[in-house]
Fold this sequence. Notes:
The protein is mainly α and 741 residues long. Helices cover 70% and strands 0% of the residues.
Amino acid sequence: MLKENINKKHQSITAYITNKQIKDALDVLKELTIEAHKEEHFHQFKNLIDTYQNILKYTINGIEDPQRQEIFARLLVAILELSDKAKETIFTNSAEIHTYRIKKQLEKEIQLSKEEAVETVENLSFNRELAEILTNTSVINQEKNHTKNYRDTLIKIFNIIWLTDKYKESDVELLRTISKANNIPWYEKCIFVSALTISLLRCFDEKKINLLIEFYETAEDQLWQRALTGLLIALYYYDKRLILYPEIINKLKKLSNNNEFNKNIEIIIIQFIKSKETENITKKLHEEILPEIAKFKPKLEDKLNLDKLYSEDFFEDKNPDWETFFEDSPDLFEKIEEFSKLQMEGSDVFLSAFAMLKYFDFFKELSNWFLPFYKQNETLKESLQNEKENLNTELFLDGLSRSLYMCNSDKYSFCLNIKHMPQMQKSMMMELFNAEIESMNEIANEDEILNKPIRNKNIFTQYIQDLYRFYKLYPLKSEFTDIFNFRLDFHNTFFFNLLAENNTMLKNIVEFYFEKNYFKEALEIYSKIYQSENKNYEIFEKIAYCYQRLGNFKEALKFYQQAELFDTNTTWILKKIAFCYRNLNNPEKALKYYLEVEKSDPENLYIQASIGNCYLDMKDFEKSLEYFYKVEYSDTSNRNILRPIAWCLFVLGKLDIAKKYYRKLIKEETNKYDFMNFGHVELCLGNKQKAIEYYKKSINQKDNNLELFMSGFNDDKEYLLKHGVDIIEIPLVVDYLKYSI
């Protein structure tokens, strides 16, 4: 509760600063400084108040101050940074959060004397430990490199990097030393980059952003990909702050001049989108698309299941003339698509398979969630030391390290679990793996030689999957802000606009959104493109299609009509316009467009059924029946067409024929309305007992009850009266039915 409350206040300060509501920000900041119980924070707050009141006074009195803008900008930064410090102090003083208990213990361990503190770093002083690593010959002496003392030191350094709030210059130099040190293995540098990333996400610091940029610019393989991923996450998370840091903005602009940088940013963004694909599609289906469709669906259409006459593909089909994203950019995600079913991207099958394999002691140490998989790892050797009879350990680990199929975290889970597998299962698995490992290595070697960018994409993918596991499966995950719970709508950020000035990256990302059916996000980007450049028919079509799939048929219609002016894809657009009109309860206009389409495609049964639906909506049952008969004649396997035919026959008073159709219908798939309508036919034919029998069957359906039944029954009274049911008998039949239930 404390964490949630403090974070809410901290976020409100950022929002107030963004909107230039300075007094409101200071009011909330005062609450935080009081809760922090730290005299230093209160003095800093007092200075901020004094500075702002002076700015106000000079402004109101008309006193010119050439430095006012600069002072004001510094004030905004100071307010945000004091809010960071106050938040961290409150959490550190709290016993609620495990993370900050570690932080508090670390601060005690590295507490220096007052004399030393003047000359060195507060809260981040691992000079002694780092010096030990930098001076030991780890490359030469691998055995020494993996002593318990050495590993404990690495963990301590990771924790201090992670749990330090604001870095001093000496801290920056120490991390630069780590980056340049030849005798620190790449995989250990990688966990320090991850520590830097989660440290930055915990507490904003311009120096941390600069360090991630520097790690990226080292171009050291495995390291720069992680640094760039961490940088992108941080830029997204702190997007509203960036405008206050011109140095960061200038560095980003400089980086964006490099096409390779922009291409890598694009890959990372798409991979983040991909990591949420399953979760988002499910959520969109149940929370957005279906409710909107239901909202516009005519009652009669629901009653007769008209939407099932033909597959939904008819109205969800994308324009066949659109070129696909992957055809335009064949290399962008070709390999990722090839392995997409085998890789873990958020909530896919691999996540569920490995979620239960994170209970090993290995994963109790936070830093190991970010550790790249490398075959020299002592934990792996210890785990596999008794398996030499079943497999060539060296070959196995080498193959697994090259594998594209699993992220680093799951590779460790896989290896650690081998010794716990039943012998028969283990033997089969090893036999299969040994048979395939050499060919896997050959493929990996060819890919790396022929296409180095593929390797970079795989590193990005696996690292993002590692992050996903950490934020979703780490036992203390609630103490971290889950980045995968964000919308990850990079296209709506300030920093993205700095990087994507030419719209190329934007277009590639929107095509990915569109192809993956993320219509809300795709619509946002298409709307930006629509406003910023010359319009072409495809932009109108795709905006319209997005609106259609989101259930906004009014806006969809507007853009389809604009696309119609280009005189391309005429038949496809006419069908879409007709579909929108029908969903807007304007069957007359819908009919006009469907009849136009019929001229060029007279054999299309979907069009025939749609025309029948329009006549049905217009209560022209004779014409409607004519078209439904055409569909029945041409497609005898379509059982759903029996439903509207039977209804039209009933409404027209052709009761004996209607009865035959309802008999056919209830032999197979039946719904609550079929039984009710069959009851209507029997009632009009004078067969009251039969009518009661079918009415009871209707009420007893899982999705029905008496109240719902009566609502539908009352809607149909006019037809019962029209076909000879005595007005006096209707309430008697209803009461009899109620007694008999």
